[in-house]
Amino acid sequence: MSDQNSSSEKPWGGRFSEPTDAFVERFTASIGFDQRLYHHDITGSIAHATMLARVGVLTDEECDQIIEGLKAVRADIEAGDFDWSVSLEDVHMNIEAKLTERIGITGKKLHTGRSRNDQIATDIRLYLRDEIDTTHAELLRLRRGLVDLAEREADTIMPGFTHLQTAQPVTFGHHLLAWYEMLARDTERLLDCRRRVNVMPLGAAALAGTTYPIDRSITADLLGFERPSDNSLDSVSDRDFAIEFTSFASLLMTHLSRFSEELVLWTSAQFDFIDLPDRFCTGSSIMPQKKNPDVPELVRGKVGRVNGHLISLLTLMKSQPLAYNKDNQEDKEPLFDTVDTVKGSLRAYADMVPAIEAKAENMRHAAKQGFSTATDLADYLVRQGVAFRDAHEIVGKAVAYGIEQDKDLSDMTLDELTPFSDAIGEDVFDVLTLEGSVEARNHRGGTAPSQVRAAARRARQAMGD
Predict the structure, then answer these.
(1) pTM over 0.90
(2) What is the DSSP letter of 371?
(3) From 2, 8, 163, 285, active-site residue
(4) What subcellular locations does the record give (predicted)?
(5) pLDDT, position 3
(6) Which domains, and CATH codes, for the chain?
């Protein structure tokens, strides 16, 4: 086997006096991963050829021949009848070579007025725009699932935590809508990112534009871009949009990781707040009683790879001079894996969340532990005219008594409570119950069941439901 390949086989080989080293050819090739861009590459090429014909660079006959040839190449790829060649380096040159093989010299005219630099920048933007739309759809599905579950559990009382210690009673529906709020912000970031993705670099050529009389507005319109880019140097070297998407993904995955942590805790025997369907769990090879929450655990673990991809892309771009550099070939694998990881995680959660079953009695029992209505007692005393700091001390002493007697505040008698303050009356028990505690927080953003339902209605309106 020869360790070198003829330079004359390369579309750029005219400049070179010796062939590419075989290892270097394999090392620098991107076809192993960028072939997934074939659909967007062909879509971009069809638009480019159409534009060239409209401005008179190609004849209508040549344009039709190129477009039909590209469609045939796409059909071959989709049928699995396409041999990707490492010697042709990337998705663009593989497709162009196959096109030329099919239609002859006219295929070589397709690349007029463009470069692989603006071509790949366009391909990635087309790809990412489609993936953003898919991601947005999955985000909406998950948000709707959370709202449905929150409405169903609007009256279910559970302990709210700070420092993972029982703090105050909340409703399970309110807790779920806290997750919703995180995802709503993620959605805003995603859609804002899409605006900056939806700018067309095609026509920037290698870095300085082209001398051909192209009309970039035609191509942008054909490809559904909002507008052509404004600077040819920036157009071919910009990867901000990929970094921005990966930044969005890192924050989204951080939120899903936080959800996962709570689901893992809640399914444990120690909490036993919820049940996940068997189809989202696995068992143990040695312990027959185990039901492991593998989906939340795996999603929690995947945030690390997405965070790593963000750092990878930031590092990739931090020292690059204008304009395009070969370094940029390294943008695709982190971006592709980020997209795949986010879509998979969202799909798993969108399928799983509606099937979560709350164990309401266990949640209620847990909410009665840890003196969760102590703040309500302090607020009650304040309404009776006691200064808050004094009220805080009074309740602290009552809690200490409860710990000693192994009694929750709501289980104490009036005779047990009045020695702590003569401001305590019979109506105190209205605020010491779990229901009284959550119902009292009946303001926008509060945990009262009526506010959970109102928040759910606002969420549905925001989602266009």
Answers:
(1) yes
(2) -
(3) 163
(4) Cytoplasm
(5) 42
(6) 22-112 (1.10.275.10), 117-209+229-365 (1.20.200.10), 370-463 (1.10.40.30)
